[in-house]
Amino acid sequence: MTALGRGSSTSLRARVRAALAAVAGGDVGPREAARLRCVGGDITRPWLGLSPAVYGRLACEAEAVWHCAGDIALTGERDRLLRTNVRGTAQVLEFAAATAPSCRLIHMSTIAVAGGRDAGHVGEEDLTDAYGFETHYDESKYRAEVLVRAWARRHDRSAVVLRPSVVASDTELPAGAPGHPLDVFGRLLDAVAAGGGPGMPTAAVRHRDGMRLRLCVPADASINIVQDDYATEAMLRIGQDAPHPAPGVRTFHIVHPSETPMRLIVEAVENRYPGLSITCVGELPDPTPAERSIATGISGFLSYSRHTRTYGRTGTLALTGGLTDPPPVDRGYLVRALGSGTVQGGPVPDPPLVPHTTLAL
């Protein structure tokens, strides 16, 4: 297997080995390591940042192309997101066109391509910009999918598009690994809770006096969060194991069958940070500095929680027969997913029940 990624081949190999070790619970063996080839490159540059000779050799060798690279900054600048997610996809598609006709393209997308559609049922083949977009990230991933569909038509090739929801992990990530959305949320809360954000008292003061924090999100809000182990297995079965002989694009939603209520996320945050009380409100006309800091940092995450739309899974279920649905996302999982798995120097246990959070509209 060849992994193309940013940085030098040496640094890339170290990152990939660390990620594999985190998943496997230990370093991979020498036989597995020998099968891994890492090539430093840049998907935003012509020839993927490679020499023509290396580019051509990789294209001749490829039996499948998994395009997983992307910028997932939900509140990132538009130009930056378009550069990686749209221009980068265009460069990958150019590479894929140079591979053998039997080489399969698997493109990693997101349910966020549904954009500003706040209700209704989103089918796996649905793709429209009629509802606008919540963030520049949504737009960039939508435009990338448009490119994939045009590429498949133009070259009469097969492509698989995978649309995961918010993928979360409750295991400790290796140093330097990119965070999933809940982990990024947790890191922001950690920084603010440690006194790194404006208007947030220290842990000692919170324990003594308590603190109230309001989030501008509906009381009945929910968000689709899917566990990483289920998502990975489903995507491998669809992208690698299942046959896709006919030309064209097939799209699959990798989502949890049940939405996670925002109140569970609130309870998980309160359990993680003793002394903190969170209230969900419909409007926030006079935010405190701490509330403004949190809202700015997680604005993309909060925008998704305001949707009531659902996602079709017909194609996914058809190609993942025998794969058990993921268990419900509970508070214990959320507490662990919000950070590295430690709080105040110790491991995170399954939290005890807390009084029902006050939710005010």
Descriptive terms for the model:
2 domains; 361 residues; alpha/beta; four-stranded parallel beta sheet
Quaternary state of the chains: single chain
Number of strands: 16
Contiguous uncertain segments of 5+ residues: 340-361
Per CATH, the superfamily of the largest domain is NAD(P)-binding Rossmann-like Domain
CATH fold call of the largest domain: Rossmann fold
| CATH classification class of the largest domain | Alpha Beta
Note the run of SSEs as H and E.
Answer: EHHEHEHEEHEEHHEEEHEEHEHHEHHEE
Q: For the CA atoms, what is the radius of gyration?
A: 21 Å
Percent helix range: 40-55%
Helix and strand content put the structural class at alpha/beta
Largest β sheet strand count, sense and barrel closure: 4 strands, parallel
How many H/I helical runs?
13
Name the overall outline: globular
Distance between the termini: 52 Å
Number of domains: 2
The averaged pLDDT comes out at 87
Beta percentage is 15-25%
InterPro entries: FAR_NAD-bd, NAD(P)-bd_dom_sf
Organism: Streptomyces lavendofoliae
Domain Thioester reductase (TE): 31-172
Protein name: Thioester reductase (TE) domain-containing protein
